[in-house]
Write a structure and sequence with these properties.
alpha/beta, ProC C-terminal domain-like fold, 7 strands, binds NADP nicotinamide-adenine-dinucleotide phosphate
Protein backbone atom coordinates (compact mmCIF):
# COMPACT_ATOMS: atom_id res chain seq x y z
CA UNK A 1 0.00 0.00 0.00
CA UNK A 2 1.17 3.54 -0.57
CA UNK A 3 0.55 7.13 0.45
CA UNK A 4 -1.65 8.61 -2.28
CA UNK A 5 -4.06 5.73 -1.94
CA UNK A 6 -7.85 5.87 -1.86
CA UNK A 7 -9.47 5.45 1.54
CA UNK A 8 -13.14 4.77 2.24
CA UNK A 9 -14.60 5.44 5.67
CA UNK A 10 -17.75 3.45 6.28
CA UNK A 11 -19.70 5.06 9.12
CA UNK A 12 -18.50 8.66 9.12
CA UNK A 13 -20.02 9.65 12.47
CA UNK A 14 -18.02 11.19 15.31
CA UNK A 15 -14.82 9.16 14.95
CA UNK A 16 -15.12 8.30 11.23
CA UNK A 17 -15.90 11.92 10.32
CA UNK A 18 -12.88 13.13 12.30
CA UNK A 19 -10.66 10.59 10.52
CA UNK A 20 -11.94 11.78 7.14
CA UNK A 21 -10.88 15.31 8.15
CA UNK A 22 -7.45 14.11 9.31
CA UNK A 23 -6.90 12.33 5.99
CA UNK A 24 -8.00 15.29 3.85
CA UNK A 25 -5.99 17.80 5.89
CA UNK A 26 -2.88 15.61 5.59
CA UNK A 27 -3.03 16.20 1.83
CA UNK A 28 -1.52 12.73 1.32
CA UNK A 29 -4.53 10.89 -0.06
CA UNK A 30 -5.71 10.82 -3.63
CA UNK A 31 -9.33 10.24 -2.64
CA UNK A 32 -11.12 10.13 0.70
CA UNK A 33 -14.64 8.67 0.59
CA UNK A 34 -17.18 8.63 3.42
CA UNK A 35 -20.57 6.99 3.95
CA UNK A 36 -23.18 6.96 6.69
CA UNK A 37 -26.89 6.05 6.79
CA UNK A 38 -28.03 9.66 7.00
CA UNK A 39 -26.02 10.92 4.00
CA UNK A 40 -27.31 14.51 4.43
CA UNK A 41 -25.08 14.79 7.50
CA UNK A 42 -22.03 14.35 5.25
CA UNK A 43 -22.32 17.83 3.72
CA UNK A 44 -19.57 19.36 5.93
CA UNK A 45 -17.17 16.62 4.82
CA UNK A 46 -18.20 17.14 1.20
CA UNK A 47 -17.20 20.82 1.49
CA UNK A 48 -13.72 19.65 2.52
CA UNK A 49 -13.42 17.54 -0.63
CA UNK A 50 -14.54 14.17 0.74
CA UNK A 51 -16.44 12.08 -1.82
CA UNK A 52 -19.82 11.35 -0.24
CA UNK A 53 -22.15 10.31 -3.07
CA UNK A 54 -21.35 6.57 -2.87
CA UNK A 55 -23.01 3.73 -1.03
CA UNK A 56 -21.01 1.36 1.20
CA UNK A 57 -20.38 -1.16 -1.58
CA UNK A 58 -19.29 1.45 -4.15
CA UNK A 59 -17.00 3.13 -1.62
CA UNK A 60 -15.45 -0.19 -0.55
CA UNK A 61 -14.96 -1.22 -4.18
CA UNK A 62 -13.16 2.02 -5.10
CA UNK A 63 -10.91 2.02 -2.05
CA UNK A 64 -7.43 0.62 -1.47
CA UNK A 65 -8.05 0.76 2.30
CA UNK A 66 -11.42 0.62 4.05
CA UNK A 67 -11.92 2.10 7.53
CA UNK A 68 -14.87 0.63 9.44
CA UNK A 69 -16.13 3.23 11.90
CA UNK A 70 -19.67 2.02 12.60
CA UNK A 71 -20.80 1.04 16.11
CA UNK A 72 -19.85 -2.50 17.20
CA UNK A 73 -23.48 -3.64 16.83
CA UNK A 74 -23.46 -2.63 13.12
CA UNK A 75 -20.09 -4.10 12.16
CA UNK A 76 -21.16 -7.58 11.06
CA UNK A 77 -24.10 -6.28 9.02
CA UNK A 78 -21.77 -3.87 7.19
CA UNK A 79 -19.02 -6.46 6.66
CA UNK A 80 -21.67 -8.80 5.24
CA UNK A 81 -22.85 -6.06 2.88
CA UNK A 82 -19.37 -5.22 1.51
CA UNK A 83 -17.79 -8.71 1.84
CA UNK A 84 -17.21 -9.29 -1.88
CA UNK A 85 -15.86 -5.72 -2.35
CA UNK A 86 -13.15 -6.09 0.31
CA UNK A 87 -11.66 -9.39 -0.80
CA UNK A 88 -7.84 -9.17 -0.81
CA UNK A 89 -8.04 -5.68 0.73
CA UNK A 90 -7.05 -4.27 4.09
CA UNK A 91 -9.87 -3.19 6.41
CA UNK A 92 -9.11 -1.15 9.52
CA UNK A 93 -11.80 -1.77 12.13
CA UNK A 94 -12.19 0.71 14.98
CA UNK A 95 -15.03 -1.06 16.71
CA UNK A 96 -14.62 -1.78 20.40
CA UNK A 97 -15.10 -5.40 21.42
CA UNK A 98 -15.18 -6.90 17.91
CA UNK A 99 -12.25 -9.32 17.71
CA UNK A 100 -10.10 -10.05 14.68
CA UNK A 101 -11.39 -13.63 14.86
CA UNK A 102 -15.00 -12.45 14.49
CA UNK A 103 -14.04 -10.14 11.61
CA UNK A 104 -11.99 -12.80 9.82
CA UNK A 105 -14.82 -15.30 10.19
CA UNK A 106 -17.20 -12.79 8.58
CA UNK A 107 -14.88 -12.03 5.63
CA UNK A 108 -12.17 -14.73 5.39
CA UNK A 109 -10.48 -13.26 2.31
CA UNK A 110 -9.95 -9.82 3.83
CA UNK A 111 -6.91 -8.72 5.83
CA UNK A 112 -8.13 -6.96 8.99
CA UNK A 113 -6.35 -4.60 11.35
CA UNK A 114 -8.12 -3.76 14.59
CA UNK A 115 -7.52 -0.37 16.20
CA UNK A 116 -8.72 1.55 19.24
CA UNK A 117 -8.43 5.34 18.85
CA UNK A 118 -9.86 7.92 21.23
CA UNK A 119 -11.97 11.02 20.86
CA UNK A 120 -8.88 13.27 20.73
CA UNK A 121 -8.78 12.31 17.04
CA UNK A 122 -11.07 15.34 16.67
CA UNK A 123 -7.97 17.48 17.30
CA UNK A 124 -5.56 15.06 15.58
CA UNK A 125 -4.22 13.96 18.98
CA UNK A 126 -5.59 10.44 19.36
CA UNK A 127 -3.56 7.76 21.04
CA UNK A 128 -4.42 4.76 18.88
CA UNK A 129 -3.45 1.16 19.63
CA UNK A 130 -3.61 -1.31 16.77
CA UNK A 131 -3.27 -5.06 16.21
CA UNK A 132 -2.78 -6.62 12.78
CA UNK A 133 -4.74 -9.77 11.96
CA UNK A 134 -3.70 -12.78 9.92
CA UNK A 135 -2.15 -12.24 6.53
CA UNK A 136 -1.40 -8.55 7.14
CA UNK A 137 1.93 -7.74 5.47
CA UNK A 138 4.51 -5.20 6.53
CA UNK A 139 3.44 -3.06 3.56
CA UNK A 140 -0.19 -3.24 4.79
CA UNK A 141 1.01 -2.16 8.22
CA UNK A 142 2.87 0.81 6.77
CA UNK A 143 -0.31 1.90 4.93
CA UNK A 144 -2.37 1.62 8.11
CA UNK A 145 0.27 3.46 10.14
CA UNK A 146 0.21 6.36 7.65
CA UNK A 147 -3.53 6.68 8.30
CA UNK A 148 -3.03 6.44 12.08
CA UNK A 149 -0.25 9.04 11.95
CA UNK A 150 -2.66 11.61 10.50
CA UNK A 151 -4.84 10.98 13.60
CA UNK A 152 -2.15 11.45 16.26
CA UNK A 153 0.18 8.96 17.94
CA UNK A 154 -0.08 5.18 17.58
CA UNK A 155 1.43 1.97 18.96
CA UNK A 156 1.09 -1.69 18.07
CA UNK A 157 -0.24 -3.96 20.79
CA UNK A 158 -1.15 -7.64 21.04
CA UNK A 159 -4.85 -8.10 20.45
CA UNK A 160 -5.29 -9.75 23.87
CA UNK A 161 -4.75 -6.28 25.39
CA UNK A 162 -7.48 -4.53 23.38
CA UNK A 163 -10.11 -4.64 26.14
CA UNK A 164 -7.61 -3.07 28.53
CA UNK A 165 -6.76 -0.44 25.89
CA UNK A 166 -10.49 0.28 25.56
CA UNK A 167 -10.75 0.69 29.36
CA UNK A 168 -7.66 2.93 29.51
CA UNK A 169 -6.89 5.16 26.49
CA UNK A 170 -10.20 4.55 24.67
CA UNK A 171 -12.24 5.73 27.66
CA UNK A 172 -9.73 8.01 29.34
CA UNK A 173 -10.87 11.25 27.68
CA UNK A 174 -14.21 10.85 29.48
CA UNK A 175 -12.47 10.25 32.82
CA UNK A 176 -10.29 13.31 32.23
CA UNK A 177 -13.28 15.46 31.22
CA UNK A 178 -14.82 14.52 34.57
CA UNK A 179 -11.59 15.35 36.42
CA UNK A 180 -10.99 18.64 34.59
CA UNK A 181 -14.61 19.66 35.18
CA UNK A 182 -14.10 18.97 38.89
CA UNK A 183 -10.89 21.02 38.80
CA UNK A 184 -12.75 23.87 37.12
CA UNK A 185 -15.33 23.82 39.93
CA UNK A 186 -12.52 23.58 42.46
CA UNK A 187 -11.03 26.77 41.01
CA UNK A 188 -14.42 28.46 41.22
CA UNK A 189 -14.78 27.27 44.84
CA UNK A 190 -11.53 29.00 45.77
CA UNK A 191 -12.58 32.18 43.97
CA UNK A 192 -11.16 31.95 40.43
CA UNK A 193 -13.22 33.21 37.48
CA UNK A 194 -14.88 30.29 35.60
CA UNK A 195 -13.08 30.65 32.22
CA UNK A 196 -9.74 31.25 33.85
CA UNK A 197 -10.25 28.21 36.08
CA UNK A 198 -11.16 25.94 33.14
CA UNK A 199 -8.24 27.11 31.02
CA UNK A 200 -5.73 26.81 33.85
CA UNK A 201 -6.88 23.27 34.68
CA UNK A 202 -6.98 21.95 31.09
CA UNK A 203 -3.72 23.64 30.08
CA UNK A 204 -1.98 22.29 33.18
CA UNK A 205 -3.13 18.74 32.35
CA UNK A 206 -1.69 19.22 28.84
CA UNK A 207 1.59 20.66 30.16
CA UNK A 208 1.97 17.92 32.79
CA UNK A 209 1.37 15.21 30.17
CA UNK A 210 4.07 16.78 27.98
CA UNK A 211 6.46 16.87 30.94
CA UNK A 212 5.89 13.16 31.64
CA UNK A 213 6.44 12.20 27.98
CA UNK A 214 9.30 14.55 27.16
CA UNK A 215 11.43 14.21 30.32
CA UNK A 216 10.64 10.52 31.01
CA UNK A 217 11.40 11.29 34.67
CA UNK A 218 10.09 9.01 37.42
CA UNK A 219 6.86 10.24 39.06
CA UNK A 220 8.61 10.57 42.43
CA UNK A 221 11.13 12.95 40.85
CA UNK A 222 8.42 14.93 39.06
CA UNK A 223 6.41 15.30 42.28
CA UNK A 224 9.51 16.29 44.25
CA UNK A 225 9.97 19.22 41.85
CA UNK A 226 6.56 20.57 42.95
CA UNK A 227 6.13 19.51 46.55
CA UNK A 228 7.96 21.59 49.19
CA UNK A 229 8.24 20.18 52.74
CA UNK A 230 5.63 21.88 54.89
CA UNK A 231 4.39 23.73 51.82
CA UNK A 232 1.15 24.20 49.90
CA UNK A 233 1.06 21.26 47.46
CA UNK A 234 1.54 18.54 50.08
CA UNK A 235 -1.75 19.64 51.67
CA UNK A 236 -3.54 18.83 48.40
CA UNK A 237 -1.64 15.55 47.91
CA UNK A 238 -2.57 14.51 51.48
CA UNK A 239 -6.28 15.00 50.71
CA UNK A 240 -6.03 13.03 47.44
CA UNK A 241 -4.22 10.14 49.14
CA UNK A 242 -6.73 10.20 52.00
CA UNK A 243 -9.58 9.75 49.46
CA UNK A 244 -7.67 6.87 47.81
CA UNK A 245 -7.60 8.54 44.41
CA UNK A 246 -5.21 5.97 42.92
CA UNK A 247 -7.48 3.08 43.89
CA UNK A 248 -10.51 4.93 42.48
CA UNK A 249 -8.74 5.46 39.14
CA UNK A 250 -7.46 1.87 38.97
CA UNK A 251 -10.96 0.62 39.72
CA UNK A 252 -12.44 2.79 36.94
CA UNK A 253 -10.06 1.35 34.33
CA UNK A 254 -10.53 -2.19 35.65
CA UNK A 255 -14.34 -1.88 35.53
CA UNK A 256 -14.29 -0.50 31.96
CA UNK A 257 -11.89 -3.25 30.85
CA UNK A 258 -14.14 -5.88 32.43
CA UNK A 259 -17.20 -4.44 30.64
CA UNK A 260 -15.36 -4.42 27.30
CA UNK A 261 -14.48 -8.11 27.82
CA UNK A 262 -18.10 -8.95 28.64
CA UNK A 263 -19.38 -7.18 25.51
CA UNK A 264 -16.70 -8.90 23.41
CA UNK A 265 -17.76 -12.30 24.78
CA UNK A 266 -21.42 -11.53 24.05
CA UNK A 267 -20.75 -10.27 20.50
CA UNK A 268 -18.40 -13.20 19.83
CA UNK A 269 -21.12 -15.67 20.80
CA UNK A 270 -23.73 -13.80 18.74
CA UNK A 271 -21.71 -13.88 15.52
N1 LIG B 1 -16.53 7.59 20.40
C1 LIG B 1 -15.37 7.19 20.92
O1 LIG B 1 -14.81 7.83 21.84
C2 LIG B 1 -14.69 5.96 20.40
C3 LIG B 1 -13.38 5.65 20.83
C4 LIG B 1 -12.77 4.53 20.32
C5 LIG B 1 -13.41 3.71 19.40
N2 LIG B 1 -14.68 4.03 19.00
C6 LIG B 1 -15.33 3.14 18.04
O2 LIG B 1 -15.55 3.90 16.87
C7 LIG B 1 -16.75 3.44 16.23
C8 LIG B 1 -17.63 4.64 15.92
O3 LIG B 1 -17.99 5.29 17.11
P1 LIG B 1 -18.63 6.75 17.07
O4 LIG B 1 -18.58 7.24 18.47
O5 LIG B 1 -18.00 7.55 15.98
O6 LIG B 1 -20.14 6.40 16.68
P2 LIG B 1 -21.18 7.27 15.82
O7 LIG B 1 -20.92 8.72 15.99
O8 LIG B 1 -22.53 6.74 16.16
O9 LIG B 1 -20.81 6.87 14.32
C9 LIG B 1 -21.20 5.67 13.75
C10 LIG B 1 -21.65 5.98 12.36
O10 LIG B 1 -21.95 4.75 11.71
C11 LIG B 1 -22.96 5.04 10.76
N3 LIG B 1 -23.61 3.80 10.34
C12 LIG B 1 -24.37 2.94 11.04
N4 LIG B 1 -24.79 1.92 10.26
C13 LIG B 1 -24.28 2.16 9.03
C14 LIG B 1 -24.38 1.49 7.80
N5 LIG B 1 -25.07 0.35 7.67
N6 LIG B 1 -23.74 2.02 6.74
C15 LIG B 1 -23.02 3.17 6.84
N7 LIG B 1 -22.90 3.87 7.99
C16 LIG B 1 -23.53 3.36 9.06
C17 LIG B 1 -23.90 5.97 11.50
O11 LIG B 1 -24.63 6.71 10.53
P3 LIG B 1 -25.94 7.58 10.89
O12 LIG B 1 -25.61 8.35 12.14
O13 LIG B 1 -26.11 8.43 9.69
O14 LIG B 1 -27.04 6.59 11.13
C18 LIG B 1 -22.91 6.84 12.29
O15 LIG B 1 -22.61 8.01 11.57
C19 LIG B 1 -17.42 2.44 17.20
O16 LIG B 1 -17.26 1.13 16.74
C20 LIG B 1 -16.69 2.64 18.51
O17 LIG B 1 -16.55 1.42 19.22
C21 LIG B 1 -15.33 5.14 19.47
Amino acid sequence: MRVGMKVAIIGAGTIGGAIARCLVESGQYETVMATRRNARKLSDLEKLGVVVDLDNRQAAESADLVVLAVKPSNVLEVVGEIRNKIQSKVVLSLAAAISLKVLERAAPQTRFVRAMPNIAVLVRSSFTAYSPGSGVTSEDKRGVEEVLRTMGVFAEVEEKHMDAVTGLSGSLPAYLFTIVEALMYAGIKVGLPRDFSLKSAAQTVLGSAKLILETEKHFAELKDMVVTPGGVTIEGIYELEDKRIRTAIMRAVEAATHKSKKIAEFLGQES
